[in-house]
Write a structure and sequence with these properties.
By secondary structure, the protein is mainly beta. The protein has no helices and eleven strands.
């Protein structure tokens, strides 16, 4: 049984920082691309940042220069460092992890940016 669990969300003031974590656990698996998504106004999930097993990253233009993604393969964990947060970053952030070439989603963690 594979589990994907996010943590690190919360309330922060505009201009502040948060770090999200996502860990995959369970039976033996091959870890692939890991990424973070959030919802669009149309309730679709849009990519925020992702990182492949070799360390190549992608990002949404809206977070360029502000959000950084990293991973620790020994811990099966991916991190999203979010700096210079804006009110429009408020959302539920979902972790997506490819395990044995299949995508697995976490339950999401709420990030609220408000004064």
């Amino acid at each position: 049984q594979v589990r994907v669990m996010e943590s690190g969300g919360g309330l922060v003031q505009p201009g502040g920082s948060l770090r999200l974590s996502c860990r995959a656990s369970g039976s033996r698996f091959s870890l692939g691309t890991m990424g973070w998504y959030r919802r669009t106004p149309g309730n679709q999930r849009e990519l925020v940042r992702s990182i492949t097993s070799s360390g190549s990253t992608t990002y949404a233009d809206s977070v360029k220069g502000r959000f950084t993604i990293s991973r620790d393969n020994a811990l099966n964990t991916v991190y999203l460092q979010m700096n210079s947060l804006k009110a429009e970053d408020t959302d539920i952030y979902y972790c997506n992890v490819y395990l044995n070439s299949h995508p697995h989603w976490g339950q999401g963690t709420q990030v609220t940016v408000s004064s």
